[in-house]
Structure formats: structure tokens, C-alpha cells
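Subject — a protein and its fold
Fields — amino acid sequence, C-alpha cells
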Amino acid sequence: MSSDEDFSLVLTDPQPLENTLEGIKTLITSYKKKHEQLIQEQQELATSRDDRRDMTEKFKQRSVKLAQDLKEDQRSYQEQIENEKAKLNSMKQEESELMKEIQKVGEALKEEEAKKDHLTQQSEVFTAVPEREVVFTGSTESEADTQTFEMKPRVVYPMEGGTALITFEEEVVARKILASKKQQVDLGGGCIITVEVQPVHLMLPRLVEIDSEVSPQHILISNLPTNLDTETLLNKLEIHFSKRKHGGGEVENCEMLPDSGTVVLTFVDKHIARGLTDTEYHDVKLQQKTHRVRVTPFLNGKITNLKTKMSACPRTVLLTGIPDVMERETLQDLLEIHFQKSSNGGGEIEAFLYNPLGQHTSALFEGVSEDKEEKTKSLTPVTIGDITFEESI
């Protein structure tokens, strides 16, 4: 109840308002108003509460969404970091591979440059080889990219004691003797020996690859006169090429190559040979006359690949188990006579070697051309110790 109402009630009626009907009505009306105000306030509070609940729910949802977004952002960021790390590792790996590739390319380039220098050096050598007359007897077809050469084998064959080597003129005779495996040889006086017959196997080169290079200390001198003795010629050449005014220097060695008729000169220093080969032709005073010689590079060879094979001699057989029962020459003659007789399966003998028990002998096998009837006559026998032996292998 407001103070105005109390004041007016006191002025109009000194009695308490609660005791009158008007007063009660007024109170009821006043309480109704208060009640309505309370209900309205209650509704406003409820609305405000609902709004706050909605807002709280929205904030919760928003916070949940923000947390999810934050987590998703973190995951995405982590994935991005991992991807960038993977890219970085990939780039590092690519960089490493590129560096290795660059290194390989650099090494390959060095090898190619070395090959180029080597080929250039070889081309210079092959255009400056000593002049020599040759006759072409081969084919014009290209067979290989590499240069080939023919080898003539020279094989030293150590013989055991009590053995002999026989080379027949015909292969068919050697095959007959080998087929018999054993031979009984009558030495006369009731003495008969039994010898075993075996094939002769030699290890021969099947493929030889040689890497050649120009020697910086050697020169090859060709176009030499033939009317001078070797010692005088070598002395004149050494004197000439040891002088600085001729582009030479101190000579370490001077030797003649008898198979080609050329001279190899070796200098102490390594920078002299190139200058002489570049000039190529030199005038050398020999016996009061000036003779023009040709100076070309000297090649050093190194075997880079060697493959061998076992080969049986087609005309040579090995006799084993020969006892020492008489003089060497007598026994050798009797054995040779036995294997020359056609009744014993033998035939014409080209060479015979006998090594008695307790002796050490080696046979030298040389390669002979297939046309041996013409080429064998031109072969020079080679002696090792006290024996000489040749066979087509």
C-alpha cells in the first residue's frame, strides 16, 4: 500500500481500511495488480531464463563446433606439416639422386674424355707408324670394331723322366698310335719293353686383349740404312739424339728390333719423345752422309684380358713308362725305328725327343701354319737347353 493511500484513508476515515468493504476491495485490487505484476515478472524471468538457456545451448554448440573446428584445423595443420616434411624429404632425396647423377655424369665425362684422348693418341700413332710395304690378302667386310692380330704360340712343355715325344708327319699315324694305348718295343737280345701312349695337351691362349698407350720415354726409329752394322748404327743414332740442338736429351738405352729392322731409343726424361715424334723426319749423319730417318711414337702394351683353352697336338704323342735299360742315344734310335714301321702302326717321324729317367728336359712347341708343307721350311728351330722341337698347335 502506498503512502498516499494511507494518508487519504486516515483523512477520510479514522477506522482501519481492512475492516471496511471498500478497503478490502481496494486491497484485493491491489493484490491482483501485484499478482499480475508478479506473474508478468515471472513470465519475463521465464522468458529471460529460456533465452539464456537458448543462448547457453547455442554457446555450447558453438563452443563444441569451435572445438571441432580447432581440432580439424590442428589435424589439417599437422597433415600439412607432414606433407611439407614429406615434400622436403622427397626434395632432399631428389637432390641427393641428382648429385649422384651429376657425379656419375662427371665420371662418365671424364671416362669419355680419357677415351677421346686415348683414341686421339692412337690415331696419331697409326698415322705415324713406320712405313712398310704390305700386301692386302684379306676381306673388305668389317668384322669387328677392334683391331685384331694373329698370334703364334710358343709353349714350353716340361717332360718327366722316362718319357718321349714323337711328332709324325701325318695326323692319321698319330691317331693310330693313340688308339693302341700301349706298344711293345723289341730292343733286341730278348729285351722287350711296354710303353704307354698318351695324347699331348697344351694350354693355349684363346683370346688376348691388349691395351696400348704411347710411351713418353721411347721413340721408334725407322727408314734406316741397311749397309751399316748394327753396333755402328746404334752408336750414331744415340749420339745424334742425345744432343739438345737436335731436340734430344740423355739416352738411357738404344736397341735394335731384329724382326722389324727398327730401333727403339729410351730417354731418361719423359718430355723429349713427344717433340721428336712431332717433327717425325730427322736428318742423321751416318758415315759422312746424311740419312733421313723417321721417328714415330713407341707403344707400350698391357694385357687386359686373357682367356685360355686346352688343345691336343694332332701329330704328337707322348710315350711314358720308358725304363732306363741302355744308353740314351741307342734307346732313342730303337724307339724311333719301332714307331717308323708301318707294321707297328707307325709312319714317317718329323721329330723325336727322349728324356731318360732322372733327367730334366723341356720341349718347345711352336705354332705352325696349316700350310705346313710350305711354311715349315721357313721356321727357325728354337732350342731350350739341348733340345729342339716344333709342332702345329
